[in-house]
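Following up on my earlier thread - several people asked me to post the actual chain instead of describing it. Fair enough. Here it is, all 140 residues.
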Amino acid sequence: MECRLGRLTDVSGTLYGTTRFGGTYCSGSAGCGTVFSITLSGTEKVLHSFGKGSDGTNPIAGLSDVGGTLYGTTFQGGGYNDGTVFSITTGGTEKVLHSFGKGTDRNTPEAPVLYQGGNLVGTTYYGGAYGYGTVFSLTR
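Reply from S.P.:
Thanks for posting it. Predicted structure:
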């Protein structure tokens, strides 16, 4: 697994993060990325492997903890292959909240989402009126 840009997030003494590659799904040996946990004593567990269906692929940013639920982005994949915003419980239940690539919201979120004023806020690398990215806000 490769942990490229993401930071680790501490939830009650367990650390959570993402890897851009690795995991069970996708063709080739690289894999499409994971969400993992690791305890302070070093026990690691893969909570989710990306790339099955339209759940997104290649998460390169860290996770944000909002009340014990983790939120993140994938750089690719999803319904339009332009990335997703997802939630995942600390037990490993993952849900896509938004697939980028339809309309002007596109595409490729690279940064972690923030929790601001009851919404998830983030940025995309491309898209928007001039093609240089967008700032987005989603309800949980």
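The two ends are 29 Å apart (CA to CA). That should answer part of your original question.
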